[in-house]
Amino acid sequence: MDEDKKYYVGRITFTGNTTTRDKVIRREVYINEGDVFNTELLKLSIRRINQLGYFKPMEGVPELGPSSIGEDRIDVTFKVEEQNRNQFTFGGGVSGLEGTFINASFSTANFLGLGETFQISAQSGRRTKNYQIAITEPYLFDRPITAGFDIFKRKLVYETFTNVVGYTDDRSGVSFTTGLPIGRRGFNRVFANYSYQIINIEGLNALLGIDPNAPATSTDPTQPVFDPFFFGEEGRRKESTISPSFVHNTVDNPYTPRSGKKLPQFAGGPLGGSVNYFKPDAEFIWYIPHLKKTALGIRAEAAYIKEYGNTQRLPIYQRFFLGGETQIRGVNIRTVGPVATDPATGQSRALGGNKFVLFNAEYYFDVGGPLRLLLFFDAGQAYSEAQKIDLKQLRTSTGVELRFIMPVLNVPFRLIYAFNPNRDSFQQKSTFKFAVGTTF
Question: In the chain, what is the greatest distance between 2 CA atoms, to the nearest angstrom?
């Protein structure tokens, strides 16, 4: 190529896409045949194609060659290698939230090679029952409009242990999502989600033996207050919510990220129903490449929920409880947050907060193939209405994790060893866990 001469794009072709249709890849390419040749746009195109997760990660620029159209034309060839994104599973497992379970499911991120996401699943276990069918079309009518729906029925039994009050959350509902890109390059998108749910909460009164006439405990106004009615709000309620959100995403790969940023900003609120609240949530994720096979990942998140109208207090399922392998790895789920003493039993109880802050850092070592080793640090806390955010109260966890992406299932399996420097008295000093998925 003569650097002083202007070149144009000749033919754009794709090889190796044995399942994925050409148009699914072509719509992620930011340069068209006949345009002035632009290396930076080709690099951005590769990032967008990698974000799909359909192919093994590409690096650098596509293959370039002379074009039969003319001497000032350059043909561009994207060489891709398909990854199996069709997952059919039948088996069982264990998680901190759901306990032991068996499940059967089919999911794909590239249904029939058209780029659609489809999932149907059934799960049953000691603490959970979950049935779902969902489909998302990222290019409705061949335009960059996301549209999808999700029909579900879920039942989850939160068991009482240590300081955590258990109850049963049984819900069914439907949600619809639509989204649009902002700008030509598609890294920024706005979404709107509408959800209608019928929620039934059971088991709180029986577990706590609540006296309806018992008063709330009187404590320092800056500390959480144990209110027996707070845990006694059982029964059936309806929720109809609309949730606008904004997402900026330049992460290079959804499964083994090494660079890029992701900023989901979310604000949820009701549209009818029996519970009135406003629930903003802001999250920031940043992956920073370091050496050839190492990278740093950072997540920071904060959320707040506020009731209004005729809703006098938030139901327990809307309050924030932190902990577990997706937030603070070394402690159990729902054990981090404001704690108060139940005067009837003298036992400390986690109340849940109306706001929280969370921070995670991971340093990755790509050992080889599907194996990834990482060092991590987690910190977070939830706070009650009467409490101000105090970083001195953060609960922390640090340790080492080994991740292995199963070739058939295409999900990370995790072995986690965690040490908890700043913890509550009822939490373990260290722990070893098995988990599936990622923290962020």
Answer: 89
